[in-house]
Amino acid sequence: MRKVDPERQLAKRRQIMEAAGDCFARRGFHATTTAEICAAAGMSPGNLFHYFDSKSAIVEAIVDEERSDTAAYFAALEEAPDSFEALLDFLDVVMAFAADKSYARLALEIAAEAMRNPAIGARTAASDAETRAAIATLLRAAMARGQADAGLDPAQAASWVAALIDGVFSRLAMDACFDPQREAPMLRLVVSRFLKPGSAE
Amino acid sequence: MRKVDPERQLAKRRQIMEAAGDCFARRGFHATTTAEICAAAGMSPGNLFHYFDSKSAIVEAIVDEERSDTAAYFAALEEAPDSFEALLDFLDVVMAFAADKSYARLALEIAAEAMRNPAIGARTAASDAETRAAIATLLRAAMARGQADAGLDPAQAASWVAALIDGVFSRLAMDACFDPQREAPMLRLVVSRFLKPGSAE
Questions:
Q1: Which of A28, A150, B1, B61 is deepest in the core (most CB within 10 A)?
Q2: Long-range contact set of residues B51-57: C-beta below 8 Å, sequence gap at least 24
Q3: What is the pLDDT of residues B1-31, one digit of tens each?
Q4: Among chain B residues, CA nearest to A176
Q5: Of the CATH numbers 3.90.550.10, 3.10.20.30, 1.10.357.10, 1.20.1440.20, which one belongs to the domain with range B59-195?
Q6: Mean pLDDT along residues A181-199
Q7: Chain A within 8 Å of B173 (Cβ-Cβ)?
Q8: Which pTM does this prediction carry?
Q9: Is B76 in a helix, a strand, or coil?
Q10: Average per-residue pLDDT in chain A?
């Protein structure tokens, strides 16, 4: 009987997720075949199916990994001395990801697929809810310190920050001239003005 | 030889576009069959193909119609006495459309399809560029009257208004609790604070 090496298993899974993610970003989720993923990952179909039983299962794993990466990012901010600055820094991180064409394309592919595939949709929605909750936590701390308008509802304001982040990726899909590096200071500006204490409409 | 009645032709086309739009919103673009569109429109496949040679052609026509409706909407605003208020009113119109579940679902289906189908993608991009140009025109007038921050680049600011509008539709896809009617005043608020003259970051 062959021994199972958990680390090796994880490394193989990650190798497939990366190869598949590249394929999805380049060719689209539906246009990508299992054979292409196998070729990109350098393994046989039998070997691939040992780790993932479908393309959808690979996307689910990619979403789960993104979710745990994001959770770890926000967990590390719990002790941040300035939660408002931490929020603005997070926006810069988002724009850096948006500037990565392969990442952005994969994110858009996953969002499109999430609409049609309930297993993926449930995972992206859960991940999104966690991100909004983490943003709301930063906002509550910023409001308590007078750095953000305490007249806003933190969860609702977090939704609008999330809407702006979604909007960045839609812009990338829609407008070939939208340059995330050029636009990063604008995202900070829009969010800063929105949250500014004492703003009258 | 049968005479062609152009009005009747247009009415038939519109009847198909509406029936197909309903199907796409309910079942998704890919899951919808031509047979379902025929049944919903109350016509035979032969008759349907006389007007549109593919599902994609129907979506292209829906995008073109939306584009000309939007152009007419903004053309009517050229004489608006208060272009800043006209922009905020436009945002309310967007939120009213977003509150229409069938419209919102169709918009998301089209956005997803635009990523994969170049004919649809080119049309949505052209329509989007026109909408941004119209918003930039309103912003320039508002800046000239001191109603909007003249330190902003109008085209760039219009992109961020567009990003927020995109973001609303992404929220609808992602967050079942996002209620466009409840959120409409927030879209006005975010945009108003962003554009407010004399805002320091």
A1: B61
A2: B51/B9, B51/B12, B51/B13, B51/B16, B52/B13, B52/B16, B55/B20, B55/B29, B56/B113, B56/B117, B56/B119, B56/B120
A3: 566 788 999 999 999 999 999 999 999 898 9
A4: B125
A5: 1.10.357.10
A6: 94
A7: yes
A8: 0.94
A9: coil
A10: 94
For B129, name the nearest residue in chain A, comparing CA atoms only.
A175
pLDDT tens track for A59-83: 999 999 999 999 999 999 988 899 9
**B129 SS3 class:** helix
Mean pLDDT computed over A125-154: 97
Query: What is the rounded CA–CA span in Å between residue A24 and residue A22?
Result: 6
> Which residue type does B180 have?
P
Each residue's pLDDT tens digit, B185-198:
999 999 999 999 97
Phi, psi of B153 (to 5 degrees): -80, 125
- In this complex, do B159 and A178 lie within 8 Å of one another by their Cβ atoms? yes
Helix (H, G, I), strand (E, B) or coil at B139: helix
B187 and A164 in contact (C-beta within 8 Å)? no
Domain ranges of chain B: 1-53, 59-195
The percentage of chain B sitting over the pLDDT mark of 90, rounded to a whole number, equals 88
Kindly list the residues from chain B whose CB atom is less than 8 angstroms away from the CB atom of residue A192. Answer: 201
Q: In chain A, which residue's Cα lies nearest the Cα of B163?
A: A167
CA-to-CA separations, A143 to A139, A163, A189, B153, in angstroms, rounded: 6, 20, 18, 30
Asked whether residue B201 carries a pLDDT value surpassing 80, the answer given is: no
For A90, A174, B58, the CA distances from B159, given in Å and listed in that order, are 21, 11, 28
Q: Which homologous superfamily is A1-53 in? A: Homeodomain-like (1.10.10.60)
Contact yes or no for B65/B103 (Cβ under 8 A): no
pLDDT at residue A201, rounded to an integer: 47
- Check B167 against A163: CB less than 8 A apart: yes
Chain length of chain A = 201
Contacts of A100 (CB under 8 A, 6+ apart): none
CB atoms within 10 A of CB A181: 10
B1-53 with B59-195: one CATH topology? no
